[in-house]
Amino acid sequence: MSENVLEIKNLVVHYETPDGVAEAVNDVSFTIKAGETLGLVGETGAGKTTIALTIMGLLPKPVGQVIQGEILLDGENIVETSRNKLKQRKNDRMMRKLRGNKIGMIFQDPMSALNPVLHVGDQIAEVIRLHNKVSKAEATQKAMEMMELVGIPGVRYSDYPHQFSGGMKQRIVIAMALACNPRVLIADEPTTALDVTIQAQVLELMNGLKSKFKTATLMITHDLGIVAEICDKCAVLYAGQLVEYGTVEHIFNNPQHPYTLALFASLPSLDKDVDRLKSISGLMSDPMNLPEYCTFYERCDAGCDSCMELDPPLTEIEPGHFVKCAKFMKKTQSATTSKGTDSGEARV
Amino acid sequence: MSEILKVTNLKKYFPVPAGMLHAVDDVSFSMHYGETLGVVGESGCGKSTLGKTILRLEPPTSGEIIFEGEDITNIDDKEFKALRPKMQMIFQDPLSSLNPRMSVSQQIAEPLRIYKVYKSNEEMEKRVLELMDIVGLARRYVDTYPHELDGGRRQRIGIARALALRPKLIVCDEPVSALDVLIQAQILNLLQDLQKEHGLSYMFITHDLSVVKHISNNICVMYLGQIIEQCDTKELFKNTLHPYAKALLSAIPVPSLKHRRQKILLKGELASPINPKNACRFAPRCLYAKEECFASAPELVDVGGNHRVACHFVKEINGL
Hints:
The complex is a heterodimer of chains A (348) and B (320).
Chain A: E1 4-17, E2 20-33, E3 37-41, H1 48-56, E4 64-73, E5 76-77, H2 85-98, E6 103-106, H3 110-113, H4 120-131, H5 136-149, H6 166-178, E7 184-188, H7 196-213, E8 216-221, H8 224-230, E9 233-238, E10 241-247, H9 248-253, H10 258-266, E11 315-318, E12 321-323, H11 342-347
Parallel strand pairs in A: 3-8, 3-9, 6-7, 7-8
Antiparallel strand pairs in A: 1-2, 1-4, 4-5, 9-10, 10-12, 11-12
Helix pairs in contact in A: 4-5, 4-6, 5-6, 6-7
Chain B: E1 3-16, E2 19-32, E3 36-40, H1 47-54, E4 62-67, E5 70-71, H2 77-83, E6 87-90, H3 94-97, H4 104-114, H5 121-134, H6 151-163, E7 169-173, H7 181-198, E8 201-206, H8 209-215, E9 218-223, E10 226-232, H9 233-238, H10 243-251, H11 291-295, E11 301-302, E12 308-309, H12 314-318
Parallel strand pairs in B: 3-8, 3-9, 6-7, 7-8
Antiparallel strand pairs in B: 1-2, 1-4, 4-5, 9-10, 10-12, 11-12
Helix pairs in contact in B: 4-5, 4-6, 5-6, 6-7
């Protein structure tokens, strides 16, 4: 339980487009242990999906490029930062063996994640046959077991995706992602396309499977409610950087970064009556043109002049709780854990 | 005449190969001036069809729609054109509801041009800039195109366009569900400010109960084309009576750790709205369903204090 299954160290990912370089992910580090769920929260364009695609080795090539950093799966590095074609091809071959096997992924839209002209059961069996030496009959048997596990009768093995409702399609996708008993499961907004009552069913299912499979789960979402419900840890992403990272207790009971506070304040609450929601003006910095100082400065209420002078590092303010804000720098100068985004910007 | 809209026994059926799809089935409610009516339900419950039918974007199958004391259920095109400025709509996805080849000013000016509100272009441009100020769009965006703007700003164009003809009723069909939470808060605040300043009435269609609680005075909860619970917002959240509304409320993930509440998990999913039987439509998923629920459809009845619920056993379930 104490081993880190997935460990991301100082990951920097750029998209190199004809119009310039978009710094999508800047120096992100986090770890997930077996059976643990990390919620990755952030608004559109913050880099959540880029992180997921990097772990899966599915960055669009050659535009997407890992500039630096390591992704350790059970202690073994799985990203290739070199631009050498041979090395990249070797990495691709390795990733092909890992994807669907040790790393499973649940996509946001179950309709487009399933092949409309294949039986759903065969789609699950395909994953099993690719990664295990089993006969066709054994794979079919295992696929039916997986379907039963996610609450779909095995007799529907030969049905097509269009014969299922949204919630059931998402269950099939979950069965597919878990078919090879992966070490890491990446769920990219798995319930965004579903209704609340169906979402509750799917979250309940994922919670149950988590304890059964002991998978390390990376839950990408924009809904803090879902994080509170099923995650153990939470990382808040802003403009490609982690601005706050800690256990859910840290983030929900003691949020410290101005952006996290703004996220909470902007949510309409079911318990309290507020006349007006709090919001912050402005937009997230353009990843093509990130400032050299704190990326949140322009929208920050608490910002002072010194914020314009430096990019604050992610600082540990209590054991396991990291905040990237200048207001914590003076107190714990020695406990800095990261060195900002210098290396990324030097290239531009 | 305090009622802006009164809908009685409204039905909208669509003929499909398998039979009749009952999208909106026997819905009655009324709205007052300056009020926000929230319509909540899951996808496929008929909430968008209800909004479109009220605006006469879809002709109703039967029933009666009375807008400002005038029956608009079966008016002809000419009368309809005179009516349209008073009732407008804001759509869910601002990108697909805006014309990609029109600049911001053209989008906002289009209704003004169609209704020939202003004689000169200068006057019209002045009004467009005024509308942009009202919805908080910086004037420098006047010549930009929708694809150059972010979701929040696009939605502001949609709102400015809806406001252009000074409507009285705006149907907002999931106006914030495509937006990030910070932008969502901005747009909700804007809608509330506009309501105060211009005395607008909103019909606010959404699947998000926390949004609807924030913005509405009254709420209708819909299930498979029917209203199953209807009352004012405070009452609904304090005293939820219908088993479906209870489950819906408990299913919302709450962003707080103190709140890991006991959930009511519903089995199964929405039944088919095609040729429904004469029975309670929620019965197959209901925890309390008895024989009677499968034998006859419950009526929407007032259980006291203008709180209307459609359930045979509402008293037994809630110990009233």
